[in-house]
């Protein structure tokens, strides 16, 4: 057991160093050598581990194939000269993540206790059921659709739009202050008699939302909070639509309508007037002190200052401050869909869905 732990620790240290080499400034040669080194390391490991030779052959072939694909990706994508800065960052990030692929193969085999991975015999092929064929076909179709979705999300148009907006953001200082007006707060005060807070998750189709969706595999990737059912007081942390600085801003539904199937789902959460007032006072405090959108926190799950947040982080934090949180999680780790999927005690009530290019459904 101690030998295994020592091996695992050394392997993690090597992986971290190689990740830094690839993503934090490695050149073409070092990146290729990194992939080859990991491939050879795991091939040697598969030869040493006492197991069936068919499994060894399977693993060696897979490791060789993965290494080949990594090298092809590096040559054709990572070091292309016609890429923008943002495209280069994303391609190098994917190249660094690709370091994990051969380890995932080993992990999969380990979890399955070195199950027999080999090509089936003719007799076994003759016994393949229609359900198995259909299942395999469905997986292939899903994989193709995922690739199409990823290509669309990481299109030059989307990446250029995000790149052009990066200079407006800050993950270290408050850049948004006093954007919510007195008129907004009067509207919010008028809704205090409504015994609910409203949680809104949306599928907007913005470039950032599309890219986030490729990682989360979720359709809805934005969360907002409203004091009234008609969403006259809807607010969240967002980019400000190039009108206001990124941070805590009110939202307008027309800004959500960025693709044909854009939609929002509204849930209501029962609360007391005091709890609702607590949330409103906190919103006033953030508006007074200042805020910024926590772009860095989307990856690192870290906030440099209390009022630097992203959308679902803000919504969850407001619920927690008012004693309304219905699941436990660090606010920096909450995804928009968690607000619905982790409602194990059924505290939320469905209010309505609005398809922004179709009539609303009650």
Note the run of SSEs as H and E: HHHHHHHHHEHEEEEHEHEHHE
Number-wise, the strands total 8
**How many helices?**
14
Radius of gyration: 25 Å
Question: What gross morphology would you assign?
Answer: elongated
Spatial order of the strands forming the largest sheet:
2-1-5-8
Residue share in helices? 40-55%
Q: Show unreliable segments.
A: 1-7, 113-120
The overall pLDDT, averaged over residues, is 77
Give a description of the structure:
Mean pLDDT is 77; it is low at 1-7 and 113-120. The protein has 362 residues and is an alpha+beta fold. The strands form 3 sheets. Strands 2-1-5-8 form a 4-stranded antiparallel beta sheet. A two-stranded antiparallel ribbon has the order 3-4. A two-stranded parallel ribbon has the order 6-7. Helix 12 (297-300) links the parallel strand 6 and strand 7 (308-309). Helix 1 (2-23) runs antiparallel to helix 4 (85-97), helix 2 (28-48) packs antiparallel against helix 3 and helix 7 (130-153) packs antiparallel against helix 10. The chain is elongated. The chain contains 14 helices and 8 strands. It has helices spanning 2-23, 28-48, 53-78, 85-97, 101-111, 122-126, 130-153, 156-165, 182-190, 207-216, 273-289, 297-300, 311-321, 338-341; strands at residues 196-203, 222-226, 235-238, 247-250, 263-270, 292-293, 308-309, 348-355. 52% of the residues lie in helices and 11% in strands.
């Amino acid at each position: 057991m101690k030998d295994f732990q020592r091996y695992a620790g050394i392997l993690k240290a090597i992986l971290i160093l190689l990740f830094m080499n690839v993503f934090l400034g490695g050149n073409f040669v070092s990146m290729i050598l990194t992939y080859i080194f990991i491939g050879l390391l795991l091939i040697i490991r598969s030869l040493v581990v006492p197991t069936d030779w068919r499994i060894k052959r399977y693993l060696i072939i897979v490791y060789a194939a993965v290494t080949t694909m990594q090298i092809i990706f590096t040559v054709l994508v990572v070091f292309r000269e016609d890429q923008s800065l943002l495209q280069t960052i994303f391609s190098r990030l994917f190249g660094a993540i690709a370091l994990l692929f051969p380890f995932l193969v080993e992990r999969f085999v380990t979890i399955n206790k070195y199950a027999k991975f080999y090509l089936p015999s003719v007799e076994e092929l003759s016994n393949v059921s229609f359900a198995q064929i259909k299942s395999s076909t469905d997986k292939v179709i899903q994989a193709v659709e995922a690739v199409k979705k990823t290509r669309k999300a990481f299109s030059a148009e989307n990446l250029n739009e995000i790149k052009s907006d990066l200079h407006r953001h800050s993950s270290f200082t408050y850049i948004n202050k006093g954007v919510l007006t007195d008129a907004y707060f009067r509207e919010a005060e008028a809704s205090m008699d409504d015994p609910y807070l409203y949680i809104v998750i949306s599928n907007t189709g913005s470039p950032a939302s599309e890219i986030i969706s490729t990682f989360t595999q979720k359709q809805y990737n934005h969360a907002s909070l409203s004091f009234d059912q008609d969403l006259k007081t809807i607010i969240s942390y967002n980019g400000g639509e190039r009108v206001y600085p990124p941070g805590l801003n009110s939202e307008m539904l027309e800004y959500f309508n960025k693709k044909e199937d854009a939609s929002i789902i509204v849930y209501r959460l029962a609360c007391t007037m005091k709890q609702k007032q607590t949330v409103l006072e906190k919103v006033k405090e953030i508006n007074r002190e200042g805020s910024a959108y926590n772009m860095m926190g989307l990856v690192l799950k870290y906030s440099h200052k209390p009022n630097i947040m992203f959308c679902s982080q803000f919504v969850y934090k407001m619920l927690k401050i008012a004693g309304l949180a219905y699941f436990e999680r660090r606010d920096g780790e909450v995804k928009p869909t968690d607000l619905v999927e982790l409602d194990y005690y059924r505290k939320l009530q469905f209010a309505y869905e609005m398809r922004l290019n179709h009539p609303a459904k009650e």
